[in-house]
Amino acid sequence: MMTKILKINPLSPEPSKIKEAAEVIKRGGTVAFPTETVYGLGADALNPEAILKVFKAKGRPSDNPLIVHIATFSGLELIAKRPAKSALVLIKEFWPGPLTIILKKKKIVPDIVTGGLNTVAVRMPDNKIALSLIKKAGVPLVAPSANLSGKPSPTRAKDVAADLSGKIDVIIDGGKTRIGIESTVIDMTTSPPTLLRPGGLPVEEIEKVVGHVQRQSMSHETTPVRSPGLKYRHYAPKARMVIVEGDSDAVQSEIKKLAEKGLKDGKKVGILAFHKEFRVEGCITKYAGSRPGTVAGRLFNILRAFDKDGVDLIISEPYGGNGLKLGIADRLRRAAGQG
Ligand code: TXA
Ligand code: MG
What we know:
Elements: E1 4-7, H1 15-26, E2 31-34, E3 39-44, H2 48-58, E4 67-69, H3 73-79, H4 85-94, E5 99-104, H5 111-114, E6 119-123, H6 128-137, E7 141-142, H7 157-164, E8 170-173, E9 184-187, E10 194-197, H8 203-210, E11 214-215, E12 240-243, H9 248-264, E13 269-273, E14 284-287, H10 292-308, E15 313-316, H11 324-335
Parallel strand pairs: 1-8, 2-8, 4-6, 5-9, 10-11, 12-15, 13-14, 13-15
Antiparallel strand pairs: 2-3, 3-7, 4-7, 5-6, 9-10
Helix pairs in contact: 1-6, 10-11
This protein binds threonylcarbamoyladenylate (TXA) and magnesium ion.
């Protein structure tokens, strides 16, 4: 299959190009497009055959449900039962934006979207290309991140092409995504609401609006898996990755020790740094920034760059905290296989 690249202006999407991409969706094809978080692989959310193509292109396990992307509130009405008041307040406050809400689904949503669950994940992305594509297609779109299953999510069209070229119909190139990590996923069918995936919208912002949100334990040995996607290794570079925890000085000397051992064993070693001046001789050091907005924007890109460099072992400084840092720490842990 030939994959067509459509370059579209993110500030003012050209109607003729949006129309061309929307036609592909209507015919049951697959179109990768930018959102404010990461690139998604879009298909008609009401067309099971089109959705099957998404699973196939990504190599995604079929029990991992998809997020349905809408552009209007009538799109929401079409697929979800009437949300509780607290969910409506969230929607009003944060849509369009990096927030995915789990709601009770309507029958019209095919089982292949939800993995047979009676709920559906919905979000309204804050990106002009995404919104105009959904509107023009006239249907809601499923859109998992447009990467091969398990790989870091794409933040640029060329990351999408590296994973999916030849496997999908169209890639819209709309520049770099603004946030860089995926949306926050919150289950509003539970009381209190449950945070299933920290992401682009800090959970603290959500709590200001709906009160306490319970955190789902990240350990799946002790708790049933609520969001099936959480049980898979994710965001992972080819290299083995370790995160060295602890306070800054101890961490840096431990990293140096591990790096020297890796180098002695003949490995190509990458260092993921959150301190600008931190370097280890003989290793490929990549600085992700220190402010969370910067780190989120660079993280997946850096993981992909380590792969391109042929790095065998990535050693990372620790990163975490509240707000956007929570989502970043989650992606780092999963990249290191500590899901
Ligand atoms: O930022 C994003 O959310 C991006 C952009 C493209 O919109 N999309 C994205 O989709 O990250 P994906 O498929 O990579 O992640 C969807 C997550 C998975 O962890 C999945 O298990 C969870 O949402 N999910 C989907 N439907 C669900 C449901 N009904 N109940 C619980 N979790 C659900
Ligand atoms: Mg994904």
